[in-house]
Amino acid sequence: MADLEIRKHAKQALRVLTDKEKKSVWHKIREFLLEIFIIVFAVSLSIWLHGISEKRHQAEEVREFLSDLKVDLANDRQEILNLKKAFPATNPEKIKTDTIRIKDSPAKGTPVEIQLQRIIRSSNLGNYEGFKSSGNIAYISNKPLKRKILKYYEQDIKLLEGLEKTYNNQVERIADEFLDAKSQHLRTNNFLLETYRQSVNEKYDQTILEINIIIKEIDTEIK
User: Do both 74 and 123 map to the same domain?
Assistant: First the structure.
């Protein structure tokens, strides 16, 4: 509709200039400028209305993303809390599923059994990765919240996954050395395993705190 009005007034402006009726030059100029003003006003109004509509659409996309992200973060938090219950710093043998059980019968003494369990955890990244890849992260007008979200997914989660991977590698190392009967290394590697476990637990606590902060800010933002 706006395009039709603009074309109509553009034709009218040209018609004023080419009008052969006996009108003064100033009269034609005045009519021409009036038509130009109407055109400029119509274009500006159209752009303004389109901008408002676009911002509303972007705001709705951000709101939907934040709502979905809140669910993902809550799921991440619950999974970490479950891991912490099965993964206390004082008990290296109760971590999570995927158990490695190794039995060995040394030349002297009773058979020995160790039970080691790898950490199995995955972060919920689908909504974040999809929103980021579409370039819509820039739509989040709350800059502090945006920075916290980016830091969580681009730094904190990757650091946590790196610590978990290091821990799992140490579990594998202990299992291999136990099978190879390199018992002289077991004490050292168990000490390292405890150190890695404590690092993971500390990062779990920090991650839960960060999740709580982000969820609280999301609740404020989407109200």
Answer: yes
